[in-house]
Amino acid sequence: MEKDLHINPENSSLPSFLRRQESPTKGERQNSQSLILEEMLKQVQHDGLIIGNPSIEIHGIETNSKNCMASFAFVAQRGVAVDGHTFIEKAIENGATAIVCEEIPAITNPNICYVQVENSAAVCGKLLKAFYEIDFTQLQVVGVTGTNGKTTAATLLYQVFTQLGYTCGLISTVCNYTGTEKSEATHTTPDTVQLYRLFHAMQQAGCTHCFMEVSSHAIHQQRISGIDFTGAIFTNLTQDHLDYHKTFAEYLRVKKQFFDNLSTSAFALVNNDDKNGQVMLQNTRAKKYSYSLKSMSDFKCKIIESHIGCTLLQIDGTEVWTKFIGAFNAYNLLSVYAAAILLGEDKQEVLQIISMLTPVEGRTQFYRNAAGLTAVIDYAHTPDALENILTTLKKLCTADNKLITVVGAGGNRDTAKRPLMGAISAQLSDTVILTSDNPRDENPACIAIQMLDGIPTEERSKVITILDRKEAIRTATMFAKPTDIILIAGKGHETYQEILGVKHHFDDKEVVQEIFNMPIK
Fold it and tell me: For 320-329, how does the pLDDT look when each residue is reduced to its tens digit (9 = 90+)?
């Protein structure tokens, strides 16, 4: 679920490497991060119009005029909501001495160097790469893209390689890591400036690998420009983000663009059981590999046994017990295994670590009270993800178990998926409680009605609506018998509800632990 928020570099709660630093004094500048603008432009192979002196020292690069300081370069990008070109004068007022833009202002400042480029967003990442002197041969970056599974795959790769003894970075929806230092995630994929600050911090910390989620928004907005990916992983593609991309065909095209831009030295690893997997490989120059549970592939997996809280898998001919459930997690684990092998790691060592891994925060997390009642918290917020987790839990239920689902849908997002999610919930659950997720600027009742519209009349008797999410969860536990399973879907790791532009603290995990009389962790 893409979160288009802006990070505040002055926020003292952020780790030191993301906070905005005070402008260095003249005596300190030799020890500060800086580079001559002309040298940076050579590295991005710039041959466009330059007005002013490019032989100036640059001490920072920003796309937000508010964050510009003395001797900064401001990159004016045409965004989804605003055009950075309208903030050029503000950037100069705040100290910027270089302006990188697609259209040079009619009136220029003689003390400023203006650099005209064809696409500011595409150039921005390359400038930052040069400024921070990022060496992607030393910091190997593997990107994970797809509708579902990105967070799990990227996070588990980070955990596997950390346990293998490497110093690693992680960029994910849940949080970011530089080595063992954790920082808040504001986007699935950060904006370009924050992204390269993270790379710089990782490089300074001696990280050898970085595993990152690559969202369709980031690809389309060219936030990943300049990154020399070592590898790319495709998980799956189902309906999501159509509020942004408008059509599924455009959503597919944008995802494919990530693979089209890989180099010949990179690997492209795709889920061969998804019909779009081979589409991703059509025009890529990267080395092509596939993984699957059902079809012929380079890396194969088979589910041998399934239980609540664990699954026996056969991965490339070797049986391994895992602390995960469901075919969707089998795909995630297989992609992690395959990527590790493609990165040169030992098969048995990787499988041993995989057997010890636990689910990522907010992804298929089990909670059981003293009476034996089970609650499962999962981030499932798309029709496909919801169907996957419900199908998995349904298989774990006996004739005496009931499956109760608490589910909502986010506001200001793809409305077409709401009736689909309602239909899937009713089809696969014994009881459904429609509730509020992150309504944002929408009326929660209207969202619930749209979900209800997808549920056939004959199944509506099993559905109730309780918009207060805490009361919805509490009611589900009152309905349930000790052997029943409650799925609480949609928010996963999130610790807030966004209502009319305000974030209110709300954590599904805390609510469940409180109702179950468990210590809140």
Answer: 999 999 999 9
User: Distance between CA 178 and CA 287 in Å, rounded?
Assistant: 28
Mean pLDDT across the chain = 91
Strand pairing partners for 486?
375, 404
3-state secondary structure of 492: coil
| Segment 378-394, tens digit of pLDDT | 999 999 899 999 999 99
Rounded CA gap, 116 and 262, in Å?
Answer: 26
Query: In the prediction, which pLDDT does 345 show?
Result: 98
- Residue whose entry in the numeric block shows the structure tokens 């001797």: 71
Q: Give CA–CA dist 6/468, Å, rounded.
A: 29
* DSSP E strand stretches across 78-153: 96-101, 113-116, 140-145
CA distances 50 to 30, 60, 94, 217, 226, Å, are 26, 19, 21, 30, 22
pLDDT of 405 > 60? The answer is: yes
For residues 146 and 259, what is the distance between their CA atoms, to the nearest angstrom? 12
pTM: 0.86
Phi, psi (deg, nearest 5) at residue 231: -160, 160
Grade residue 22 by pLDDT with cuts at 50, 70 and 90: very low
pLDDT of residue 26: 29
CA distances from 82 to 77, 87, 119, 125 (A): 9, 10, 16, 19
- Give the pLDDT of residue 32: 61
Report how far residue 144's alpha carbon sits from residue 152's, in angstroms, rounded to the nearest whole number: 10
- pLDDT for 27 equals 31
Residue 454: is its pLDDT beyond 50?
A: yes
d(CA 344, CA 208): 13
- β pairing state of 299-307 and 310-315: antiparallel
- Residues 127, 44: contact at Cβ < 8 Å? yes
Cα distance between residue 375 and residue 509, in whole Å: 10
R_g of the chain computed on alpha carbons: 24
Q: Would you state the structure tokens that stand for residue 377, as one six-digit string?
A: 């918290």
Say how far apart CA 280 and CA 285 lie, in whole Å.
Answer: 11
> Residue 343 — φ and ψ, nearest 5°?
-90, 5
CA distances to 16, 173, 408, 411 from 436, rounded to whole Å, are 36, 21, 5, 9
